[in-house]
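Appendix C reproduces, verbatim, an entry submitted by the partner laboratory led by Prof. M.T., so that reviewers can inspect both the input and the predicted structure.
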Amino acid sequence: MRMPKAPPQVQKLFVSTPSQRLLHCLGAGVESVHKDKYLHWEDVRVRNPPADLSHEEWWLAIKLKRGSTRRELPFVDKSGQHFSYSDSGDLYRRLRGIDRDCSGQIEVPFGHGFQEGSGEKYLMSSLIEESITSSQLEGAATTRRIAKEMLRTGRSPRDESEQMILSNYHAMEFLRQHAQEDLSMDILLELHRILTHKTLEEHQIGRLRQPLDRVEVASWDGVVVHTPPHANELDVRMGRLLTFANHDHDGQEIHPFVKAVVLHFMIGYDHPFVDGNGRTARALFYWSMARSDYWLTQYLTISSVIRQAPAQYVRAYVYSETDDRDITYFLYYHLKVMRTAISNLHSYLARKSREMERLWSVLRAPDTTILLNHRQVALLGHLLKNPEQIYVIASHQRSHNVTYQTARTDLIKLTELGFLQASKRGRKLVYRKSTEFESKLGELRNALADAANFR
């Protein structure tokens, strides 16, 4: 990654600009956001300035506009200067979209009762996807298919990459359990311990980095983009972070999304751990949003969006650090990520809706009884509505008033066909939906179509 050019110092530009030109800059109607983009000097210097402004005058006008809505944060950089963000009308227009889409209802046209009991299924899928992609951002090298198989079946990880993904999944579950609690140092260190279990040296797990720990932040191509504050400052810095996470700043309410993004940014900036800082930062973002009742966020996978263009993620950090500690760059980046993640969720739900309609059409087809009896069709329909349902032979026997042997034969056949999977619960055999349920229904549809064509 090529590091951006350092912006001109606004104070020097202000002093060196003649009064008449300064008034001209102020009256040029320059906005803090240019065509939906929060421009850094790296972008400004290569674009055509508005009116007859020079690049430096355009930058000065932008910075003066941003300065009028600057809101200081309780965090400081290595030189003791405060971080801030621009509290512009455009930012709050975008935040209203987050309010609408992350705390409202999802409209899903499934019908047929498909939504009943399916929330946990979608939540598990989202937690699995986030665990995988957040770990892949930090170097985990395994396929999504293999990682999903490990998490769904509960098998032990085979290597460090799989362990990282499993640990990330456990960390997300841990934060769900503590979503309504204040963030404490114990919770933060336990989160790190879970995230780095068996992937770090034991003496580095669940503790802040020490003065002898040499830590630098590099981009994917090895370019050092950030050197964090000295380890001796971490106790004070983490104290500020915990206070900010749990309370309003100076009695002034900060928008929940802004707070969550700032927490994410500051973990990245302070880099309190030897490793696992990125995963910790992204997990805390989820925790903060859940704590503020933005419940839809738990169904989103922000890391999958970040992973599509990791350079933009790094650049958002670097722009914020190099331009007067202005975290607005990081805010705008995350607003874009959230919009994409929300859009991806709705596309996923719409796709699942279409898939479920096709699967229901299989169960409604008269020819289905050629391969399955009416009791088996009824069970599959019930399972489609209630994906977490568990069946036993006795319950199937009572539901259809058949003999024990007939009920047993029904369930064994559905297991052999791949619709169900059997397991022991104590001394009793129980049946639940298999991981191949949807694909097996698709195969059944194809078999019925082949049979119809043959006739």
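The CA atoms of residues 33 and 39 lie 7 Å apart. Additional entries are available on request from the coordinating office.
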